[in-house]
Amino acid sequence: MKKRLVATHRRRTALVGVGALTAGLLLTSPQSASAANLIKNPGFETAGSDDMPYCWKKSGWGDNDFTFETVADAHSGSKAMKVTLTRRVDGDRKALITESAECAPVVTPGKQYDLGLWYKSTTPDTSVTLFRHDATAGWQYWTDLKTLEMAAGWTEATVRTPEVPAGTDRIAWGVSVYGTGSVTTDDYTMDQVADPVPDPVCTGTAEECANGRWDVLPTQNPVRSMHSVVLNNGKVLLIAGSGNSEQMFEAGTFTSAVYDPENGTYKQIPTPKDMFCAGHVQLQDGRVLVMSGNKGYPSADGTIGYQGYKDSYIFDPVTETYGKTNDMNDGHWYPSATVLGNGDVISFGGLKEDSTGSVTAELWSDAEQKWLELWKVNQTWSYWGLYPSMILMQDGRLFYSGSHVFGNNIPGTGSAIYDYGANTVTQIPGLQKKDERDQSASVLLPPAQDQKVLTIGGGNIDSNPDANRLTDVIDLKQPNPSYVAGPPLPQGTVDLGNGKVPQTGNQGKMYVSAVLLPDGKVLETGGALHNRADPVYESSLYDPATGTFDPVAADPEERGYHSSAFLLPDGRVMATGDNPGNGSWNHDVSIYTPPYLLKGERPAITSVIDTEWTYGDTQRITVDRPIAKAELIRPAAVTHSSDPNQRFVDLPLSVDGNNIDLNVTSNPNLAPPGWYMLFAVDANGVPSVAKWVHLQGPQALSATDSSAHVHDFADNLKGKVTGPGKKRTSQKVGPTVSGCDRHYGSVNVCVPTDFPPAVKATTKSRCDWLKKNDYGRLKVNGRDDPLRLDPNRDQIACGKGDVTRR
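The line above is the sequence of DUF1929 domain-containing protein; the predicted structure tokens follow.
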């Protein structure tokens, strides 16, 4: 089992279908080559130097034997280009447009181009590969767009590029051959796509069309859910467990509900154990794996902390029931959960049954349908903290973004690349204020092929400073990637207990929700300024193409601790929950209608030929009118600002009227096996309602055996590298890990161990703050009074005698 994992995770698999097809251009059938072909010497008829035609050059890399030939077997004219590999260990060979001002076609940033060629091929290991010239950085690899199927006779291939990135003035492209065999090509074409369609007609108010609209649903969420999973039937699993209520825990009342967006109804689901603060992830067959949860609440005096159990369950969307799996090796309260390219699931961190931190990596085997025994799983014995954000990279490694829950970050730089096969951890630099990224949000930006991660906001429940406005972006395609500072988070209003006031200075928010949208932007919403207090009302859209935030309408509901926001199949966003420190719960549900749904009629996917997809396939859909792009979005499985499996995978297009051929990535690390929402998006950024498609796993694993060509990404890491440490049982974690002083009130009440900066360290100031935040009567547990809330020692905090004495 271990050998299979190493081969799967460490091999650099093919990157097919890379690129961001952002909205903005009308899709039409490719123009004829005679209309505006941008390729010089497209049929190889004019001779050049180095035994190559004019404006074409030999290109490629790696250990292989190859030949380049100009042959008479042409599609038209008298010449064609044949590239042959007779032996290959790695790498590729390709006839490429010469990267020069004389030969490389001029392009316009923001535009898209239709590429076409005729070919014959004796190998399935091919790809249309693009390079771009950046005015500052020079020539660099851009993307692979399409795999060419084997063809004995002349066959036409067409594909549309992503929007040309900013700063790009020319591109070069050709066909890569990365398996033994030959490809003969001829008659290349490149045409600029038509200009955008006219501006849409607004179907809402001017404000709504610019900033979207929030609606609070008339029916409340019946459970105190803090876990939200969008199922492959379009419904939403909402998991509460005890809902952070000690009373429900003691009564054994554990709850879940299934919400149906079609009719707005909830169905409560029998829940076998307290899944409060568990981990969860969708398996490749659409079932939901739920790992660990709450074995016990802290003791009244705070000497014992939260405890995680070893149990694991699977929720079946068909029967809407939970079933038991085998136990994990450790308890994991607040674990990570990342699905891998072979369908396995890896999990780190959280608290064990004795309240210490788990240093055990856990691996769920998709093949064996169980958690593997400890000795079968590579271990570094590292403690990654609580809900560490572990994002799968395109080569099978994991990027720890630095987003986590509760207090300080891990030692070192605060972000790292973890390599399961090599069993190493390499520190990655650049994350700002790494110990103030508690309950920040991190997302793999659209498209997944670009390998860029955005981290947003955060705070620290221990020191309880004002939450920050920091954002950081990292490009994992760089050989030695490092975070760079992004634009500051927009500011909104904050309720400090006396009504909403504008945020000032560097005030930002923690408890951030970040949602990938089908138009390629990211909605960030919700949050609070301090530990379970002072809600912030602000939402904005981040555009990866421009690297900017655009403020939009804010959710009218408080969305702090234990809140979630996630994409629905109809393109709207649902937001639930809020659990402030006084122990109350917000059962209201908000729905965000983004501006793209107020631009008039939506495109529709009228047919999907096949809902069972395999890696490297070409899949045909039919649409009712022209579209500009299509993508797969993995459905949400989110809690505590964390959904490391959220991803947006581009599907490059080949267009024939309303028939669209979608080119599916051949790399399962870009799109791990499972169910996805398929969206088609028109030139105005308006998405269709999603269709559900299932991306297969086993075929993908066999496809990687060819060790398809790739470009080395994040492969020149200069950070500190550590291997497995000494085997140990756990990491010591203080019982106040949740930032709550348990000397006061019930266990589901969180009196902060450190009050916000504006609160003076006096009994009156602290008691005034607790009163403004509706804490009510607080019993003192035991004899200790560390926050000096009970000077008269009557065992009631902030009573009349306490406030008048000091």
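Note on the example: The radius of gyration is 28 Å. The helical segments are 2-10, 33-36, 206-211, 246-251, 698-703, 763-772, 800-805.
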